[in-house]
Structure formats: C-alpha cells, structure tokens
Amino acid sequence: MQIAIINGPNLNLLGKRETGIYGSESFEQYFKHLQRHFPDVTFTYYQSNVEGELINYLHEVGFSYDGILLNAGAYTHTSVAIRDAIAGIKTPVMEIHISNVYAREEFRHTSLIAPKCVGCICGLGLKGYQLGVEYFVID
Predict the structure, then answer these.
(1) Strand order of the sheet with strand 2-7?
(2) Annotated catalytic residue: which of 30, 75, 97, 129?
(3) What is the 3-state secondary structure of 16-53?
(4) Which among 20, 32, 48, 69 has the fewest CB atoms less than 10 Å away?
(5) What's the predicted TM-score (pTM) here?
(6) Which segments of the chain have a pLDDT < 70?
(7) Is the separation of the CB atoms in 103 and 123 below 8 Å?
(8) Which residues, other chains included, contact 127 with Cβ-Cβ below 8 Å and sequence gap of 6+?
C-alpha cells in the first residue's frame, strides 16, 4: 500500500510555529513514528508553501497511490485550484487539520476541498494523520 502525505503552507514550521496550537514536534519527527507504526505501508511525504507545486504533486501521485492525506493549510479555505485537482484524480484524499478549524476564526470554518475528499479529520493534533492512515489501511 502506498500513501502520500502532502502538507501545505507553513507546515514546514511545525514544532516552531504557534506551538500552543500546533505542538512542539516537527512533522519529520512524527513521520518517523508513522513509518514505524505502519511498517507495511510505503509513505511519501511532500510539503510546499506554493499552491501550484501542491497541485503538481497531487497530479503526480493521484493515479497510482492508494490514498492521500492532505493538509492544505490555509489553501483549504481559498483554493478552487486544489479542489479541482482533487476532483481530477482517482486516488481518494483525506483532508487533515492539526487544529480544530471550527474553534478558530470564522474564515477557517469553510473548506473548499472538503466536498472532493472522502473525509476530514481535524482538531486531534498530529494523531489525525495516523487516523487517516488507518482509514486507508482498514478500508
């Protein structure tokens, strides 16, 4: 099984940025945990702050992987282009958010990508990625 994890803008700063919201662990540290916890899954990890690069990577893995975990960051609330990219690929996408976006600013309450995703996990910290993997592994 192949699962791609794609993180969007500012998620390269995990462990440094707003630790009260996002925690003190970097994603690279957490990624190692996922690899140990799911030894039968082949993971790829991609992060970019650039919308077009995220779209290109969705296109690259979106026809051959078994699942995609996508934390589009702020692009969740603004990017019709990422929504269209998800709609155009065959691999199912799970929307992931570390914080509870519904307990934050009102503009974060609307996800443009949610209607094209198989589900959404938010507010459970980095554990949301593990739960997303479990969805694809168990399903």
Answers:
(1) 42-47, 2-7, 67-71, 93-97, 119-122
(2) 97
(3) CCCHHHHCCCCHHHHHHHHHHHCCCCEEEEEECCCHHH
(4) 20
(5) 0.93
(6) 139
(7) yes
(8) none
pLDDT at 46: 98
Q: Which two tokens stand for residue 121?
A: 């996990």
What letter would DSSP give residue 64? Answer: T
Query: Domain limits of the chain?
Result: 2-138
Residue 20, C-beta contacts closer than 8 angstroms, at least 6 positions apart? none
Annotated binding site for substrate: 71, 77, 84, 98-99, 108
Is 59 marked active-site? no
Residue located via tokens 């198989």? 118
The pLDDT assigned to 6 comes to 98
Active site (annotated) includes residue 22: yes
